[in-house]
Design brief:
- The protein is mainly alpha-helical.
- Among the domains are: 100 residues, no CATH class; 212 residues, no CATH class; 97 residues, no CATH class; 104 residues, no CATH class.
- 41% of the residues lie in helices and 3% in strands.
- The chain contains 29 helices and 6 strands.
- The strands form 3 sheets. A two-stranded antiparallel sheet has the order 1-2.
- The longest helix has 21 residues.
- The protein is globular.
- The two termini are 38 Å apart.
Length: 739
Amino acid sequence: DQISYNFHVRPLLSDNCYACHGPDENKREAGLRLDLAESAYAALKENPEAHAIVPGKPNASEVIKRLETSDESEMMPPPESNLKLTEEEKGIIRKWIRQGAAYEPHWAFVPPVKAALPEVSNTAWAANQIDHFVLNRLEQRGLQPNEKADKMHLLKRLSIDLTGLPPSLELMQAYRDDESPEATDKIIDRLMESPAFGERMAVLWMDISRYSDSYGYQDDNIRTQWPYRDWVIHAFNNNLPYDQFITWQLAGDLLPNASKEQILATAFNRNHKYTEEGGVIPEEYRVEYNVDKTNTFSKAILGMTVECAQCHDHKYDPISQENYFQMYAFFNNTPEKGYEGDVSISKPAKNPIMWIEHEDLEGVLDFVNHKDTSNIMVSVMADFKDSLRNTYVLDRGVYDQPTTEVSVSTPEAILPFDENKYETNRLGLAKWTFAEENPLTARVFVNLIWQELFGAGIVRTAGDFGMQGDLPTHPQLLDWLAVDFRESGWDIKHLIKTIVSSATYQQSAKVDDRKMEKDPGNFYLARAPRIRMNAEHIRDMVLFSSGLMVQELGGPSVKPYQPEGLWEASTSGRGELAEYRQDEGNSLYRRGLYTFIKLTSPPPKPIIFDGSNRDVCEVTRNRTNTPLQALAMLNDPLVLEASRVMAGELVGAGKSAAAAIEEAFARILCRPPGEEELRLLTEYYQEELKRFQKRPEKILHAVRAGDSPLGPNADKPETAALMQVVVAIYNVEEAITKT
């Protein structure tokens, strides 16, 4: 009945009109700006008798005339733009003007407020405040939530979400036997106290911080940023408040009496690509590095696409090119160089550098996993102490085209930067980021965590809270969580526990025809999502369930199995990474988080399962479904090796075929098999057993997968047959799916 500018009208204007009538002054047509009320209401520059919008009078509004005309010379959007509004969309704009054409500030630029909990009918279902907001939207649409997931499905979901690992048999049994009302709460606490919690959260942050083990570009030599990854794991496990977590990464070196831990955190800013190619123009790449820092900060922490304003005023958001380079200026006072020499004189860190010495490992950096006595170099941040580099708006964003000089500042549309309140450096930027009035910071991180747990954020464009971003499905819930997060002292574990303790999160993932018809995208959360696990967690599931995993925390990256020739096909032939040298022993069985990332040739299996290639900051991964994924699960040496190791262990334990299959099923799928499932798998086992008994020469050929030693039972037909069953279980869709 009541048309909202933010939720009904602005998306239509943004998609169809702002390219020519929006914030970008250089591309603005006819002097008309439709994103601001005073401009839209004003007399038209080319026709002073007319007004684009006359509140309350759609027939007197030029916008309506242009939208509804059949004259192609007058029609808006113009036919050559290939943009067109539907009759319903035109009706929305007409109705909005009739109701007064009231403009509203963009929802994401208004500080969040904790709304009162909405009333719901089914009060018994709600476990905490989250559920009131979700249930209110469901009841408005005639939907009801699912029943609570059964214990084993819920345990797997919690374990994957909180540790990235499937639950152990011992944990399954403990949870199954605990019939107390606090059983789930105790499991949540237990999982969040596990060191694996920090590793699971670090997967998200490595994508955001564009962590890699090489420099990128043509030569793509090795670098040693891995102590930063150890710090991220340590920070999450110790529940470092989010304001400190970000402040240290943005400006730890500028804190009073900064510790080596705080300086190490600033490696966040230095994870971008570097060139080691002779003949480059150093200033071009120095500018490129600072552009990357600026874009990463804005996308990951503010959820804004400010990179659009590097070359011109933003076409959709109120961010000018001057605003962009004012933000860029925060990162422009470092002695970092664009080029330090080619690969022949390369070192594994670029200036500014922090050395991690042996004595640090016994003190403030005791969380860094470094076994030998050599010192480690890490690229970190520092500013010039006695001078300030001038910053200019670069014409079209080009490094050698300076125009107007600017100083540090932030977009006023988000929150003005008060130089009397904040230092004019990265530390001041961090304080501005966590000012209570900043409308974005808490919302953006809350949304990232929601996305990690539900597969999609409350705002589905997690890196774009601007005019072109998706509207929140539950705006009041997003704001309630954002304020609660800030009031908790930016407590990350509190935020996660609040979400996973909700009835919304703990629902069954079952879906019926009615819910699929009314809400196929699960926008309104009438069921738990059913989504494929992250690439790293698929590897971890295979390693953990088979018993192969080496659960060592932190340390340098490792090089597991990889098809031959991939690196060699994408290298200059120079430097330490010219050839792929697979690791041996325990290094082959580390978690996916620790897999070596070479930027010009990222590891193939994570890429097949939509892992980030780490070239730039990524806040959202795609989820595709391709034949390559099935082929990888069927043929990956690690899956075959894990199946062989598990089968050998179960046969060696003297278990019956049925008992062995039941245990393998539980270890992989985290639940007991149904009667029909057990029957089918047992029949398959018997078929394979007969095959290997008839052809014993095939046994060693079948089980010889991976580098781990063949066990004493490897040559038995029972082992080979059970191995085939385990491979089949790993290839059940449920094995790599969080339900």
